[in-house]
Design a protein that fits this description.
The structure holds 2 protein chains of 2 kinds. By secondary structure, chain A is mainly alpha-helical. Chain A is 66% helix and 0% strand. The longest helix of chain A has 47 residues, at 176-222. By secondary structure, chain B is an alpha/beta fold. Chain B has 6 helices and 5 strands; from the N terminus they run E-H-H-E-H-E-H-E-E-H-H. Chain B has helices spanning 6-16, 22-32, 44-55, 71-82, 102-110, 114-120; strands at 2-3, 35-39, 61-64, 91-94, 97-100. In chain B, strands 1-3-2-4-5 form a 5-stranded mixed sheet, with helices on both faces. In chain B, a hairpin with a 2-residue loop joins strand 4 and strand 5 (97-100). In chain B, helix 2 (22-32) crosses helix 4 (71-82). The longest helix of chain B has 12 residues, at 44-55. The chains are: A mainly alpha, B alpha/beta. The interface between A and B is medium-sized, with 29 and 22 residues. Chain B: Its main location: cytoplasm. Chain B: Keywords: Cytoplasm, Electron transport, Redox-active center, Transport. Chain B: Residues 35-99 form the Glutaredoxin domain.
């Protein structure tokens, strides 16, 4: 690339004084700018140094080899910068400038330099050189170079000392195009530096999140399956642990939706506003069904045994979740008043879900049958026939895999039931309906925690009397505790 | 529920006079009855879908693909039709038109579109 050539040639020439040369910068194409982006700021920094050295090294008295090896024979390719600009610097050749300039400053200053320009602060030299530019440059190019100047000002703060380069004050010719390109390159470098910074910050925060997640996972594993598993201990699969965690998060989010619904109803929001909340709530249910679908692929037994729910919910568990017809039975009294048409719709929905549940249950029963047959095949009391055994094990594994299909169909049915309910009801009714579902499950969870914390100590109570004892005051206090952190059988 | 026996398949096969594209065969068989289920005898989900229709009082025509000599091809054709991988069964056709696999059948039953479809095809009266 042209830039490489620049660097190489430039490095070979070093010296304090410089003769600015018309870059003939056809070498610096837009592709080069992309190149800068890709390689990053560090490379660009080196490159700019090299560039400046190259610029610094140029003598325009014809003794030196050309700056660009493919430099055109004549330099009069930019008519707005007539050749006479090259001549005038000659008389200023005596000026030797210390290597004070930064990238931007030197490029800026190579335009045209007065004798009196001080080599001190780059900013001053930039400003002075821009003054010179106004004097020397053609009208057409002056604005562009000046426009380039403000871009350079922030860059000068970087204060990258370029060894061996000068402030380029001997009237080096740099046309407006190359100035612009240099400015763009610098901008690109700056942007890529910023991007790199942002990326690193992102990586850092991701790393922190990852360690937090790992800690959560560890905690989940050590605690067994939250309230559910009891003695199962550390035998939880990673997919199950992940699902438990996601479910916990889903519950927290669900609690927020319930609050929104409650407040929305109490505030008597308009139907439009309430609809937004209700639809959000429904979409949230869609989310848990999606998550369950993913978990079913890796650990369907975890779902179907309900180890992710609380004990009381597990009582009612049907195929890894709630039974839609049962839920509807609970909800219908809560939906009052219903129109005739709505009542018909809800009742037929209840009937269809009952039929579907029945069908799935019978399919599951057949699956149990074949699974049991496969496991029990051959003789159980005498030695096993290995060949047959392996075949039967394969069948049994296949049946277990079929379980995933059933849980998926059951979840599909639950999702469809919720959607159909939403369709039948008005916005307000649907809001109350979803609130009712949430409240019902909260109560089940509360029941579970009450059950888990019921007094079982031997010292203070007669064990036999315990069976019929009234709940102790401690139990009553527990009722009032927030229970949304527990799980429901969804 | 009517199960198509292998002999009648053979007869139909001979009557057609040779090889037919499996998908064509599927569609032809599907058009012959109001409710057609393509199934595999050992598949539990197929059992579930059969129970569903029987529970509604419908009498579907069932083709057990594992008992048909060309069942494998038809299963593949059905899988392609549904645009998914295995298992391709159960697949339900009502009134000669494809309804789909179990999830589509369940969804249409829950949202109330299955019963009108059955009535239209003459599989259900009431």
């Amino acid at each position: 690339m042209a830039n490489h050539r620049v660097g190489e040639t430039g490095l070979s020439d070093s010296g304090p004084s410089s003769q600015p040369v018309a870059y003939g910068v056809h070498g610096i194409t837009p592709a080069a700018t992309n190149f800068f982006d890709q390689e990053g700021a560090a490379y660009f920094g080196e490159l700019e140094e090299a560039l400046m050295q190259g610029v610094a090294g140029m003598r325009n008295d014809g003794d030196r080899k050309p700056f660009f090896t493919t430099r055109p024979p004549t330099l009069e390719i930019f008519p707005s910068w007539p050749m006479r600009f090259q001549q005038t610097p000659k008389c200023q050749q005596g000026n030797s400038q210390p290597a004070e300039s930064t990238d931007s400053g030197s490029a800026q200053n190579t335009i045209s330099q007065p004798d009196s320009e001080s080599p001190g602060s780059v900013k001053a030299s930039s400003e002075q050189s821009s003054e010179q530019q106004q004097q020397r440059m053609m009208a057409g190019d002056a604005p562009s170079a000046e426009a380039a100047a403000p871009n350079h000002q922030p860059k000068t703060q970087d204060n990258r000392r370029v060894a061996g380069s000068t402030a380029e004050k001997d009237g080096k010719i740099l046309d407006a195009k190359s100035l612009r390109r240099l400015a763009q390159n610098r901008e690109a470098a700056r942007k890529s530096r910023l991007r790199k910074k942002a990326y690193i910050q992102q990586l850092e925060s991701s790393r922190i999140k990852l360690t937090q997640l790992e800690q959560d996972l560890q905690r989940a594993r050590s605690q067994g399956l939250f309230l559910g598993g009891g003695g199962a201990g550390g035998n939880i699969s990673s997919a199950a642990a992940v699902f438990d965690m996601e479910y916990g998060r889903w519950l927290d989010e669900n609690y927020r939706h319930m609050t929104d619904l409650r407040e929305g109803l109490q505030a008597h929001l308009s139907d439009g506003d309430l609809r937004v909340i209700v639809d959000e709530c429904l979409a949230h249910y869609d989310e848990i069904f999606r998550v369950k679908g993913v978990a079913a692929k890796s650990d369907v037994l975890h779902l179907i045994t309900g180890m992710w729910t609380t004990p009381a919910e597990r009582c009612f568990l049907w195929m890894g979740g709630f039974r839609p017809s049962e839920l509807l039975k609970i909800l219908i009294p809560q939906m009052d008043p219903l129109t005739e048409q709505q009542l018909v719709g809800i009742c037929s929905l209840q009937q269809s879900s009952q039929q579907a549940e029945e069908a799935l249950s019978q399919g599951l029963e057949q699956l149990h049958q074949s699974l049991g047959d496969a496991v029990a095949s051959g003789s159980l009391s005498e030695g096993t026939d290995v060949g047959n055994y392996m075949g039967q094990i394969a069948i049994a594994l296949g049946k277990l895999a079929d379980l995933e299909g059933f849980v998926r169909q059951a979840d599909n049915m639950r999702q469809q039931t919720l959607h159909q309910t939403r369709r039948i009801l008005t916005v307000r009714q649907a809001a109350r309906c979803f609130l009712a579902i949430g409240e019902y499950n909260s109560r089940l969870r509360a029941l579970s925690s009450l059950w888990a914390s019921r007094p079982r100590d031997v010292c203070n109570r007669n064990l036999i009397a315990d069976e019929s004892a009234c709940p102790a005051t401690t139990d009553l206090q527990i009722i009032h505790q927030p229970v949304h952190s527990h799980f429901s059988g969804f | 529920m009517q199960y198509q026996a292998a002999e009648s398949w053979g007869a139909a096969y001979a009557a057609m006079g040779g090889r037919a594209d499996p998908l064509e065969r599927v569609e032809r068989l599907a058009a012959e009855s109001a409710v057609v289920i393509f199934s595999v005898s050992t598949c539990c989900m197929c059992h579930a879908v059969k129970r569903l229709f029987c529970g509604m009082g419908v009498s579907p025509t069932v083709y057990e693909l594992d008992e048909d000599p060309r069942g494998k091809e038809m299963e593949r054709a059905l899988a392609r039709l549904l645009g998914g991988g295995p298992p391709a069964v159960p697949v339900v056709f009502i009134g000669g038109k494809l309804v789909g696999a179990m999830d589509r059948v369940m969804a249409s039953h829950i949202n109330g579109t299955l019963v009108p479809l059955l009535k239209e095809a003459g599989a259900l009266w009431l």
